[in-house]
Amino acid sequence: MxxxxxxxxxxxxxxxxxxxxxxxxxxxxxxxFETLLEKFSEELKTCSxxxxxxxxxxxxxxxxxxxxxxxxxxxSV
Amino acid sequence: MFHVDYHADPTDWIPGKILMEEMERELTxxxxxxxxxVSNWMTAVSIFQRIEHKRMVENEPSLRDFEFHKAxxxxxxxxxxxLLLELQEQKSIDPKWIGMSFEGFAAAVRSLxxxxxxxxxxxxxxxxxxxxxxxxxEGP
Lengths: 77, 140
Fold this sequence. Notes:
The structure holds two protein chains of two kinds. Chain A is mainly α.
């Protein structure tokens, strides 16, 4: 499976969903995120799951901010 | 370490700091039942995450926000790791009695760890770009 910008976006969104999930849903979201990390880190060969997570986390931060702002705008309409 | 007082802004990190002090007291006394400490941890982290969302995600965090977030988050993460160890050792105590599986609690602790690395990672920009470049190079 090729690794591309779409896969990266999937990782970022899955991580953001996991971080923003309710406690009841956290375990399932965590499994989804860590399964993806495992899969992509194996395909990249050169990087561990932990390093891949560290690399994408700033993008997750930007994504969460953009999503929170969009939600706030929708609420104010 | 902190360069502001408790009353600087009543809407910010004060609830998280008060809950941290409460947990420190519990840790010192070691009197409280493990399940109650797990439950208190879940409540404290839930409040911490609400403040985080308001101060760090919905708004541009200040230096002070970063300081409080790192200090409180690291404390809660450490306590969570300790509680996980205690739950592993005392198998007769199952967090399902307070509405959460052991795996669910472990996921909550790991999630807090990811959140801390998201805000306070020491990975350099060059290292990060190097890893992400691998995605772009191997794409279609």
